Amino acid sequence: MSDPKQTPDVVVSGGVVVDGKGMRRRDVVIKDGIVAAVVPPGEAPDAETVIDATGRYVLPGIIDAHLHPVYTDRIDTISASAALGGTTTLIGFIGAIKAWGGTGTIVDAVKTFIAEGEEKSMIDFSAHGSLCRDDLELLPETIPQLVEMGITSFKGFMAYRKRGMMLDDPELLQVLEIVAANGGLFQVHAENGSLLDHLQDEFIAQGKTTPEYHSLSAPNLAETEAVMRIATFASTVGCPLYLVHLSARQSVDLVRLWRSWGSSTPLYTETCIHYLTLKNEELRKRGSLAKVGPPLREQEDLDALWQGVADGVIEVVSTDYAGHTQEKKEPIWDDVFKSPSGLPGIGNLLSIVFDAGVNEGRITLPKLVEVLCEAPAKIFGMYPRKGTLSPGSDADLVVFDPTAKHVIRAAEQGLKTDYSMWEGRECVGAPTLVMQRGAVLVEDGELKANPGQGVFLPREGQGVSLPGESQTTNETRRTQGG
Ligand SMILES: [Zn+2]
Fold first, then answer.
1. How far is the CA of 309 from the centre of ligand 1 (A)?
2. What is the pLDDT of residues 204-235, one digit of tens each?
3. Cα–ligand 1 centroid distance for 189 (angstroms)
4. Could you tell me the distance, in angstroms and rounded to a whole number, from the CA of residue 157 to the centre of ligand 1?
């Protein structure tokens, strides 16, 4: 503690504190919303409030680095649902994309989102800039403005030409150059859009529009090819790259191979809870309610993704929350290509990764903390304020009971989105208390947070290195090239 004579506000006592390296019995001492110390049991000074975490794990607050707060649910209900599940930090994709209701420039869209979040968010939040073709002309001005505002990651699409979102190869290179020059990170939806459009047009011409044709129109290799292409571009330009929502086993193999070639340009990868737990048979069971891009895959893909998480090929797990009501997902059965993409799941990140990952023996609990807390905080420029319980960090934490049973029900998740892909699934392990900057957000399943309690988090650009990675500046990246 900075001043040991000061009485702490809160001590979380008797629990097992987990970080990416391991688990230790420790008490967490909190003063003014900040972790003041993490000490062996019994060594904490007397505090105003003592929270008994005996028999529980104490985890850093969960970070969901991939969600879309622009559809049926916005930051108000999304942040409430996230908090109930143990998430304390959100990074939403914000763009001036017309399909998402956007007008004006991307800078306007981000400013509007920050204002909305400051008024309504129950948890801390930030944004990634989501780019479409209409943004290209202004990018030399808008990217530096956004970096100045603390928005340091930018996403582009290699698919969805018909919706005006797909960037072609020269455009991708142009964007990578601008993002790299401003110390940013480029995120990419990697699927070969020409191949997807070709297959989709063929199926539509043949009248093949039932739900299973969604996955048939977006095969695994459409993703893997795009991963190879964008990794090549990014490393040539020297722009740090983050592959969102990897879904295909071949992409995991390719990233592993890519890393063995030793590029000095960082390449980070993410997958989502639906790719880890749901198969494409959901399209036959639930129609377009199960439509997401890239599509749900097969058991072999699930196994490869879990292996990738376990051995570090995949650094981050997120929700890619994009909730629509069942009504908005129409047509459910007869024309999957007309239904919007996206799955709900914002409140399920921790419980699904714990139950399907840790309880099933696929990953360890420290690995869970790495992929849900430490890695997203480091990659997105929020570490060590977020992602860790270290002296000086924000006191965002989850007291987690590994034996508590919890059944997922859409109706109980605090969302307007009225279905869940995991409806009725029993998860063993649940948060009993969720705290942000020392204030209790959720206790025994009851939301105690208020709208506007969350703050906007300006983020730093690339330059924070991951464990085992040497610190590389943008200048050296560019001169080293690939
Ligand atoms: Zn997404």
1. 19
2. 999 999 999 999 999 999 999 999 999 999 99
3. 8
4. 10
Side-chain-side CA neighbours of 336 within 13 Å: the count stands at 28
Give the pair of three-digit tokens for residue 387.
Answer: 């992602």
From ligand 1's centre to the CA of 262, what distance in Å?
28
CA distance linking residue 403 with residue 434, whole number of Å = 17
Q: How far is the CA of 336 from the centre of ligand 1 (A)?
A: 19
DSSP 354: I
Ligand 1 centroid–CA 168 distance in Å is 19
Structural domains in the chain, sorted by start:
61-379 (3.20.20.140)
Average pLDDT taken over every residue of the chain: 93
Decide: 110 and 129 in contact? Cβ < 8 Å. yes
pLDDT of residue 448: 97
Instruction: Measure the CA–CA gap between 175 and 7, rounded to whole angstroms.
Output: 51
Query: Ligand 1: distance of its center to the CA of 419 in Å?
Result: 18
| CB contact at 8 A, 132 and 109 | no
pLDDT band at residue 246 using 50, 70 and 90 as cut-offs: very high
Can you tell me the distance from the alpha carbon of 421 to that of 320, in angstroms, rounded to the nearest whole number?
13
Stretch 32-56: mean pLDDT: 96
Other beta carbons within 10 angstroms of residue 104's beta carbon come to 10
Ligand 1 centroid to residue 272 C-alpha, Å:
10
Is the whole-model pTM more than 0.85?
A: yes
**Tens of pLDDT, residues 372-408:** 999 999 999 999 999 999 999 999 999 999 999 999 9
Q: What is the pLDDT of residue 462?
A: 72
Ligand 1 midpoint to CA 125 (Å): 16
Distance 245 CA to ligand 1 centre (A): 7
